Amino acid sequence: MSSQTASPGDSTDDEASAAEAADFAGPTDARRVTTQTLQALKEAGTPIAMLTAYDYTSARLLDRAGIDVLLVGDSASNVMAGHETTLPMTLDHMIYHAQCVRRGAERALVAADLPFGTFQGNSEEALASAIRMMKEAGVHAVKMEGGRAVAGSVERIVEAGVPVIGHLGLTPQSIYEFGTYQVRAEGEEEADQLRRDARALEEAGCFALVLEKIPAALAEAVTQDLAIPTVGIGAGAACDGQVLVSHDLLGLTTDFSPRFVRRYARLDETITEAAERYVQDVRARAFPSEEESY
Q: Is residue 263 classed exposed, middle or buried when 0-12, 13-18 and 19+ CB atoms within 10 A define those classes?
């Protein structure tokens, strides 16, 4: 927080930015999505569309489709690197993927996960990780898993000028603590704790909160508790927005089919069929043709 006294012009600038966000026209609006845009969407009751992205080409396509937020998720560990968990991802790995996505996104807000081991130690470590991500990758925000245990680090990072998205419910970086990817906070005690964690993250300065794999009624209650937007994944339709792993939505992860995933395409079949046809044409010397040769 700055100790400087606000000038009369500051409130005018804030009002102008808020008005611009409120006037946001959605996918056809070429203006960059900002944290204020997302807040305005919540207040207008307009759901936020978020998807993961890990490379330049997919980021460019998703950006053109009108996705509001591109999340460079540590799920890259699973869908890009083939690991069983998100834990192997390093900050260097995440910065590389975030750089690629940032170059492809002209309109969407780009946020990136801080991976396991880069913020849990202390607030100094967390701040250094967040600053590296913002400076080297050019992202607009970082995402951090955890509740009150990380609230102090969230506050420190936000005070340094880095916007933060929180993440509660099923937090994949804690998979060995949970032991399973099942729904979280089904019991009253854990549900109450999650609501307390959500309020703590909001008070620490998070501008949005991801709620993963929790009962829909609980997600709705949290959404009503908070002034900031909630974005659900397996958390029902009452959240202020939704997020999916793009590989799941596109049908590229056929060995993974949780209840909350809706497949809008079957690119696994499209890619396999295209590659099979290519092999056939090469074997038959049907490719390249005379027109495809110099």
A: middle
Three-class SS of residue 194?
helix
**CATH C-level class of 8-263:** alpha beta
Query: Which two structure tokens, joined as six digits, stand for 70?
Result: 């591109």
| Measured distance CA(204)–CA(189) in Å, rounded | 23
* Residue 114 scores a pLDDT above 70: yes
Residue 10, classed as helix, strand or coil, is: helix
Q: Indicate the domain borders of the chain.
A: 8-263, 266-294
Helices (H), 45-134: 56-64, 76-79, 91-104, 123-132
Strand 141-145 with 109-113, pairing: parallel
- CA dist 213 → 147, 234, 258 (Å): 15, 4, 10
Q: What is the model's pTM?
A: 0.91
155 is a catalytic site residue: no
Which candidate, 227, 260, 257, 254, places its Cα nearest to that of 242? 260
Residue 130, SS3 per DSSP? helix
Task: Tell me what the mean pLDDT of segment 18-46 comes to.
Answer: 84
User: Amino acid letter at 288?
Assistant: P
Catalytic one among 145, 202, 212, 220? 212
Q: For tokens 């690991």, what's the residue?
A: 83
CB proximity list for 88: less than 8 A, separation 6 or greater: 77, 81
For the stretch 124-182, pLDDT in tens is: 999 999 999 999 999 999 999 999 999 999 999 999 999 999 999 999 999 999 888 99
